[in-house]
Every structure is written in C-alpha cells, then in structure tokens.
Amino acid sequence: MALSAERLRREIQDLSNLPTLPGVVQVIVSMVEEENSNVQKIGDCIARDQVLSAKLLRMVNSPFYGFPGRISSVKHALVLLGFNVVKGLVLSTTVFDALAQNIRGLWEHSLGVAVLSRRIAKELNVREPDEIMVSGLLHDLGKVVMAYLAKSDYDAALDVAQLKHCHIVEAEKEIFGYHHAMVAGWVAEYWHLPQRLSDAITYHHHPDRAKQSPGTAAIVQLADILARGMGYGNAGDPTMPPIEHKEFRALGLSFERIDGILQGAEQEFFQGVNLFANSTAPL
C-alpha cells in the first residue's frame, strides 16, 4: 500500500526525515519568520555555512540575475533580493542537491518554469518578480518529497502516467490517493513559506482556488504549460495540463506578448541550467 496522507504529513513534520533541510537551513527558515529578524543576523547565519554562502553568492553574481556590480557579501544579497527570495533560493539549492542528481528531467522542468515565471511577472510589471521566480522553481516540490519518501510508489505513478497518457496528478491520485500539489501545500505550511509562494506551489493547477494570490498561481500555471511546450525538462507525464481560462484572461497577455516572453526566456533558461548545475555540485 502506498504511503498514506497521514503518514506522509507526519514525515514532513519531522523535517529531519527530509535531506533538503540541513540544520543551518532550518535555522535560516525560522529566523526569516521572526518579527525581530534583521539582515545582519540572517546574513551572519548564512555566512557561517561556507558551502551555502558560496552557492548563494555564486547565484546572485551570475548573468542569470544581471546585477551590474559584484555582490561580495551575503548581507548585500539579502538587501538586494529580500528575505523571501533568499529564503526560497536557500530552500531551492538544498532541495535540488538531491534532485539534480536523481531526477534531472524534473529539475530542468522546474528551472524552466522559474525562468518563465519571472519573465511573465516582469512583462506584467508585477512586484518582486524574483519571488515569483522562486515560486516557479519550487512549484513541483511535492513531487520531490513524494519521490524521496516513497520512491517505488512514485515510480509506479510515473509509469501509470505514461501508460495511460494521463496527467501526473491523476496518476498520483490513483497510486497515493492524493497528489503533489497537496503535498506541496503541507510542506509550505510546515516550512512557513510566505502566502504568495505557498499559493503558487499549492494551486498552480487551479489558480482559482488560491487563498490570497490567484494571480501568482496563474503566472506559475502559465509558465508550467509554456515550459512543457518548450520542452524544458520532464514534468513526469506526457500531457499538457489544462489552463484556467478565467485566470489566463485576467493576466491580459496577448499571444504576441507570450511569444516575446518565450524568445527572451530561451537564453536565460540555458544560463540557469549551467548556474544551478554548478550551484548544486560540491564546491
């Protein structure tokens, strides 16, 4: 029998069971949530972990971000990007330490969704496009957790999706009784992720159900579909998920503007592949 929802939630609550949250990351995630958090305090915590701080500085100094000057300190990175983006990047690099090696197709799909999410957000002049990029990067977090905690069952779900030519959500429900977006919501709850990010990863297949940020969830949903169309990685199934037409229309994007987004994203995607491949590799 596949891992029950109750058992999986218990496993998520005991974060020591997940390789994606080493001690220092747990501390950083908690500190960001504290009312009296400050840049110096969080920066000092990250800086004490040489590997993590080196990865963060490598990312923010890459062409992927395009800052005009060299960023030499974690504190500077925090000031430029904000707590939520740095928190998301810290989670992303640790999540994908394992993912980049074991499920490369899903990792590249997630990166494609991240790049396109940021491109769409910039096109729409949405505030904090880098935070929306992190939403795209973590949108399939539930798949990572399910595959880690119940690999043989998740492999079975992937097989069902291929054999039945159905969306991975349907295959996951057949094997587990729940699906990756629900799991992502549980993880977001226990990791205390910001509501906008939580909404995006929990409701990226159904933006209309988002509690506070349906627009962000709609951006990630569109980015997910575009990434599939562009052949960025492998989301785990051979189908194209349906789009919520109401939310898509609310974005106000013409096909001409979408074409421009796709053209601009191509180079960024390959820059990101190289950047994050190096960031998840041992230093």
Describe this structure in words.
It is a single chain. The termini are far apart. By secondary structure, the protein is mainly α. α4 (50-60) packs antiparallel against α16 (255-280) and α9 (141-149) packs across α10 (151-164). The protein contains 16 helices and no strands.
What's the short version?
By secondary structure, this protein is an all-alpha fold. 70% of the residues lie in helices and 0% in strands.
Helix-strand layout with pairing:
Layout: H1 5-13, H2 23-33, H3 39-47, H4 50-60, H5 74-81, H6 83-102, H7 104-123, H8 129-137, H9 141-149, H10 151-164, H11 168-176, H12 180-191, H13 195-202, H14 214-229, H15 245-251, H16 255-280
Helix pairs in contact: 1-12, 2-3, 2-6, 3-5, 4-16, 5-6, 6-7, 6-8, 6-16, 7-8, 7-14, 7-16, 8-13, 9-10, 9-12, 10-11, 12-13, 13-14, 14-15
